[in-house]
From TrEMBL:
<dbReference type="GO" id="GO:0003924">
    <property type="term" value="F:GTPase activity"/>
</dbReference>
<dbReference type="GO" id="GO:0051604">
    <property type="term" value="P:protein maturation"/>
</dbReference>
<dbReference type="GO" id="GO:0005525">
    <property type="term" value="F:GTP binding"/>
</dbReference>
<dbReference type="Pfam" id="PF02492">
    <property type="entry name" value="cobW"/>
</dbReference>
<keyword id="KW-0533">Nickel</keyword>
<keyword id="KW-0342">GTP-binding</keyword>
<dbReference type="InterPro" id="IPR003495">
    <property type="entry name" value="CobW/HypB/UreG_nucleotide-bd"/>
</dbReference>
<dbReference type="InterPro" id="IPR027417">
    <property type="entry name" value="P-loop_NTPase"/>
</dbReference>
<keyword id="KW-0378">Hydrolase</keyword>
<dbReference type="InterPro" id="IPR004392">
    <property type="entry name" value="Hyd_mat_HypB"/>
</dbReference>
<dbReference type="GO" id="GO:0016151">
    <property type="term" value="F:nickel cation binding"/>
</dbReference>
<feature type="compositionally biased region" description="Basic and acidic residues">
    <location>
        <begin position="63"/>
        <end position="91"/>
    </location>
</feature>
<comment type="similarity">
    <text>Belongs to the SIMIBI class G3E GTPase family. HypB/HupM subfamily.</text>
</comment>
<keyword id="KW-0479">Metal-binding</keyword>
<dbReference type="GO" id="GO:0008270">
    <property type="term" value="F:zinc ion binding"/>
</dbReference>
<feature type="compositionally biased region" description="Basic residues">
    <location>
        <begin position="53"/>
        <end position="62"/>
    </location>
</feature>
<feature type="region of interest" description="Disordered">
    <location>
        <begin position="32"/>
        <end position="97"/>
    </location>
</feature>
């Protein structure tokens, strides 16, 4: 979940617009913090000497500094045992640092879990309201909108280009491309004859509903067409941001490993379809297809799965058939 990741502003490439600005939260991080996260840091100053007399039962604080040191040691000792330790011959085994066990599911230095939840709700509430507006707009135009998500290098753009070539003359399409920098992917899409808008997110790690809203106003959308949104390569943050799409499609290449659905469960839980891509490389990599599907269905029992190779064309007909049913 991207609640306070510090995503910067996004821009539509080669365009100027000021009507809408993507919702973002600026978090100021301070070096001095006291009680957040799994490790507590205590900063103590030098002991203060009191000039007045401590008569009538009052005690001198001669050991204040020593007491502070003991207090710090006690806290470090206490929190050092929050995580399980398995010592064998003095060496820790299986030591884990888990920063996602709080109520917010994330840890940010200097912010309490309650503060993180408040920020998350504020960001997502604004995004979700605009996502609903997008969805109403798409429905009125009879648009099928799909949000393609994956790690970098999964083959999303190659899959899109091949899909667009096969749909040419059958169904109008448009593409919204999301990347941190460059317009290279949008140029590849345009080479197929399909309109594409490039969104450069800068330091941002995902697209949001505002960005899609702005991009759609720069596309000529034909009634009953398909809008493919190619999100920023990232299996974490895009999972939590509704763009107004009909469905999320998670693309996973066989070069990545079959454990990805378990490592990034939010994304695969949010996806309606998982595409196992680059199957032409299966003879050359160690990838257990059955185990990958099993892992995906552990986090999302309803997820549909397709296996294909955008390069060889194997499995593309099944993908086009899935699109036709949506």
């Amino acid at each position: 979940m991207c609640t306070v990741c510090g995503c910067g502003e996004a821009r539509v490439a080669d365009a100027e617009y000021h009507d809408h600005e993507p919702a973002r939260v600026v978090i100021h991080h301070h070096h001095h913090y006291h009680h957040q996260g799994d490790v507590h840091h205590h900063y103590h100053g030098a002991p203060v000497e009191h000039g007045h007399s401590h008569a009538h039962g009052h005690h001198h604080h001669e050991h204040e500094h020593e007491h502070e040191h003991e207090h710090e040691h006690e806290h470090e000792h206490e929190h050092g045992h929050e995580h399980g330790h398995d010592h064998e011959h003095g060496h820790p085994q299986g030591l884990e640092l888990h920063y996602g066990r709080g109520a917010a599911g994330v840890s940010v230095p200097g912010m309490s879990q309650r503060s993180l939840i408040a920020v998350e709700r504020d960001v997502l509430d604004k995004n979700n309201r605009l996502a609903e507006h997008n969805r109403e707009h798409f429905a009125a135009a009879g648009q099928l909108v799909l949000n393609l998500v994956s790690s970098p290098g999964s083959g999303k753009t190659t899959l899109l280009c091949e899909t667009l070539r096969r749909l040419a003359g059958h169904r109008p399409c448009a593409v919204i491309e999301g990347d941190q920098q460059t317009s290279s992917d949008a140029e590849r899409i345009r080479a197929t004859g399909v309109s594409a808008v490039q969104i450069n997110t800068g330091k941002g790690c995902h697209l949001d509903a505002q960005m899609i809203h702005d991009a759609c106003h720069r596309l000529e959308l034909a009634q009953g067409g398909i809008i493919f949104i190619e999100n920023v390569g990232n299996l974490v943050c895009p999972a939590g941001f509704d763009l107004g799409e009909r469905a999320k499609v998670a693309v996973l290449s066989v070069t990545e490993g079959e454990e990805k659905p378990l490592k990034y469960p939010d994304m695969f839980a949010a996806a309606s379809l998982m595409i196992i891509n680059k199957t032409d490389l299966l003879p050359y990599v160690q990838f257990d297809v059955a185990r990958c599907i099993e892992n995906a269905r552990r986090v999302n029992p309803a997820i549909q799965v397709l296996q294909l190779s955008a390069s060889s064309g194997e499995g593309m007909d099944a993908w086009l058939a899935w699109l036709a049913k949506m």
